[in-house]
């Protein structure tokens, strides 16, 4: 499977904000519009569109959290019309590879709603280990880059 991660630009941001998760996932994730706005206040974060061929199928946002100086994948959203095709796991593998190439990367963190079983399963398949519950109520998981996991 070939997916391509491309920068969100003035040419594609409106297409990005039209992407939607499935109805049963809407309460688990912030909108892409909110995420793009949030990224303007997180200077160490990257926002990328996920493309399959010429079609934008998803969105991802990641970077160094200003509070704990760890890499966090804040958002992963595959449009409802493109779910169930393996795009989420392939996107995550590409993001993990990008982060692994950054200097001084020791851990990659994610957080997800406790009822989001799809996210829990995806992150577990990728080697993330649950490390606790965040103060805001989400489950936090960590992928260590130090021990050679992926």
UniProtKB/TrEMBL annotation:
Q: List each copy of the N-acetyltransferase domain by range.
A: 3-145
Q: Which Pfam families match?
A: Acetyltransf_1 (PF00583)
Q: Which CDD domains match?
A: NAT_SF
GO MF term list:
acyltransferase activity, transferring groups other than amino-acyl groups
> Does Transferase appear among the keywords?
yes
User: What is the superkingdom listed in this entry's lineage?
Assistant: Bacteria
Under the heading Gene3D superfamilies, the entry gives: 3.40.630.30
Give the keywords, sorted. Transferase
Q: Which InterPro entries match?
A: Acyl_CoA_acyltransferase, GNAT_dom, MshD_Acetyltransferase
The protein's name in its UniProt record: GNAT family N-acetyltransferase
């Amino acid at each position: 499977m070939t997916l391509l991660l491309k920068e969100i630009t003035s040419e594609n941001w409106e297409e990005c904000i039209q992407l939607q998760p499935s109805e049963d996932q809407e309460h688990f994730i912030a909108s892409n519009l909110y995420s793009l706005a949030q990224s303007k206040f997180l200077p160490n974060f990257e926002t990328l569109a996920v493309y399959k061929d010429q079609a934008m199928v998803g969105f991802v946002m990641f970077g160094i959290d200003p509070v704990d100086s760890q890499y966090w994948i804040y958002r992963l959203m595959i449009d409802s019309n493109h779910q169930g095709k393996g795009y989420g796991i392939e996107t995550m593998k590409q993001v993990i590879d990008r982060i692994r190439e950054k200097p001084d990367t020791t851990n990659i963190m994610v957080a997800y709603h406790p009822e989001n079983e799809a996210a829990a399963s995806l992150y577990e398949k990728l080697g993330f280990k649950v490390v606790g519950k965040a103060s805001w109520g989400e489950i936090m998981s960590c992928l260590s880059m130090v021990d050679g996991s992926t």
